[in-house]
Design a protein that fits this description.
five-stranded mixed beta sheet, 18 helices, about 40% helix
Amino acid sequence: MKGCKPRLLCIAAAGICLAGCGRKIEQKNSGLHVYVGYSDTIMNFAVEKFKNAYPDIPVVVTEKPEEEDDYEYDQQLSAQLMSGEGADVFFIQNYWDIDKLLAAGAFADLTEIYDSSRVFQDEDFIQDIMEAGVIGGKRVFLPMECNIPLLITTEEALEETGFAAKRCTDFDSFIDEARKFMLGENYDRRLFRMDITAGNCLYWAGYPVVEDGEIVWDIEETREYYEWYKEFYKREGGIGEYYFGDLRGAAEVRDKKCLFENCALMYSDMDVIRALHTVGDPAVLPIYNKEGGITATLKKAVAVRANSENMGNVEKFLEILFDGETMKTPGAYKREVSVRRSVHENYFNSLLKKPFMTEVDGFPMELPELEKEEFDAYFAYIDQISRVVYRRGWAGDFREEMNAYLTGGASYEEAAENAKRKLEFYLSE
């Protein structure tokens, strides 16, 4: 039931916001209200810099009370935002239904600020990621960090299994090679450590499902993907244990329990690569989308309340928040793919030689240092990003209906029709 709450809260508040959308907001610039969520360290740094730079501007900071549940508090904030209340500036939170917030016009258009600000004209920004914040012709949020789907293994494992990573130049060729592996005589380990890797391929591949509030899903286009996914599901026992962090994935590659680890976290990728140096030569393979590019997933983005009366102060704050110095402040970077290239370089210079205090998953505490060439090769994939997606509110229901096909409870057509009905219901709310 917990997964249903975001939708219910947004629906309850949507009418309140919609009634006031479109009117011009009188700007008072009498202060600034900032929300600082769990682990939003960089927001605290920016607030202190703003206070020092503009001591005459009153600043209100809202933080989650320690006794409050993260999920419940996020939903309170979402409901406030939908009703036109709350902080001026905030990070989009994990459980928010962004599609519903966008439909309600809850986010301010930041195009003018972005185009006129000296900070955002810095060539250090990765524009392909920044442009993900433009939806329907409006710049409704400012991306800060994302991650990219990379599979990690060893050259030795690829050779043992005959998996030809070099042939995987787009998603279709990856599916072909993965199917050969699963049906071949060298199939002696899981393809992925976790089933969620196969499930997320729907989005990483770039299959359109819902765009601009309309269902654009072509069930025939995704048939081959789901047939492959069903084969994976049948052969590999369905859903594997979801566990992120430490070196469990590296250990399963080492122990020949899986061919590929997908951490979904850049800093964990770095640890896995270092650990695999103790058993062989690490190899990295992106999951390319259907066009041969890479689909990144948005992890952190900043938005502004649509009816804020403090947009002048908001502009000053955003310039501080996205300034290179602020983004490189120790502790500010969450160690994902940053929209600033210089943040990555700064991160490499601060990498610890000993990421663990004890031996983890059978690896020595003293792991080899990450080579600069490996680090650069990892981040070179950023230049292949062609799409950036964000968490969709309908994804859970969609996946649940399609799972009926994976488990044999429905034909592909039946599962797809049920999933489409769920999407139609979601879009009609």
